[in-house]
Task: inverse folding
């Protein structure tokens, strides 16, 4: 039988889609060493209408997005810094909180909500560990928040 990667390779040779690498995990609330990256040699189809070079993908690990994405689902994202695309209310975005000069990252996906005070990032989860919003005006000691990408598509694991 064909595995997922050979299927994608066949289709991309036919000129339909370009594969993009899965480069890491979204594990809201868990610090990850940035050098670990994603699973080796895992690729997913890119999304049309956006430059492939600005797309990246992450695997959902855990329950931090369980209202809209399950453990093992893949988020296809558009890099915000390189693409120059702007964020609007209700976008689902990748938020990276870093510590120790960026050596460790806590990467999660949150929904953008506009409030009187500015923007807040809310979890799409009913899990008790993932209920607090991130308020972008409040920076904790030694922690830095970056909204790194906009989620374009969710690939559900069958």
Result:
């Amino acid at each position: 039988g064909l595995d997922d990667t050979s299927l994608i390779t066949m289709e991309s040779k036919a000129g339909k889609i370009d594969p993009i690498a899965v480069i890491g995990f979204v594990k809201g609330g868990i610090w990850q060493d940035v050098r670990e990256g994603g699973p080796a040699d895992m690729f997913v189809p890119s999304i049309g209408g956006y430059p492939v070079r600005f797309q990246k993908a992450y695997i959902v690990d855990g329950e931090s997005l369980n209202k809209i994405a399950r453990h093992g689902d893949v988020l296809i994202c558009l890099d915000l810094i390189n693409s120059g695309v702007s964020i609007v209310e209700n976008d689902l975005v990748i938020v990276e909180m870093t510590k120790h000069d960026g050596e460790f990252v806590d990467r999660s996906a949150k929904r953008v909500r506009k409030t009187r005070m500015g923007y807040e990032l809310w979890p799409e989860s009913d899990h008790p560990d993932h209920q607090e919003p991130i308020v972008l005006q409040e920076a904790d000691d030694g922690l830095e928040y970056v909204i790194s990408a906009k989620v374009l598509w969710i690939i559900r694991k069958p």
Notes: Residues 7 and 95 are 31 Å apart (CA to CA).
